[in-house]
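User: Here's a chain of 256 residues. Predict its fold as tokens.
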Amino acid sequence: MKNFILFSLVVSLSACGDEPVAASHDATIDVDAADSTPDVAQVPDAAVDVEVDLVLLRDGADGFDRVVLCCDGPHGTSWRKLLLPTYKGSRVDPGETYKELGKQTLQRLVANGAIRIAAPQYIPEGITQELGKQYYAEADDVIGSLCFWAITNGHTVRILSCDKDMMQLVDDEAGIDLALTGDGMIYRERDVVASLAVAPCKVPLLKALAGDTSDEYKPYKGLGEGGAAKLIDAFASGPDQGIGDIWANIHDAPPS
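Assistant: Prediction complete.
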């Protein structure tokens, strides 16, 4: 058994100009490619501005065998735009300084022993892509795939991310927890429930109902996370229950 940190580096490889180490859902991942966790203390202090909490990575790496940097694809567009064209539509170019710091951070972490895996090209089955465009999975998809792989192979995982969406992957039995860089907490299942009022496995349903401001989708006006959590608790708390069970019983919904 090995212990892994999956580190979501919030920088696209297209910004860094590097050839990626690509991974797919059925790829064989050489997790023994690095001999140790990286010495993140050697990363330039200025790179902290690239939306990564390297202090937390340094402290959290103790006791872990490998650090994996999960990155967006080298170029192209997120496959989610095929389903929702407005997905992350108003995010702006972060600028050359940000990109250069990201490149330095990525290079130094890899040089110090981290494993870099980039999101592969991906098109959902049954979806036709726009001619001439390339669509890629995202760093979060890489993290999800690696968590599945880790569970299958009996490894434990700590996810280091600033994204609360990663709470859906927390699994006490499988040994997967989340170090959320925004507050420095280590989230386990009870912490996810305390934060969102739903179990980790219900976080995707919570997001489907309440939407996500940062990703720019809001399917149901006036329904926030609190109301969505109440609907899930009332009508879809079972492991096999979902949005269909909520709509089938929506007239019995408790008042908000």
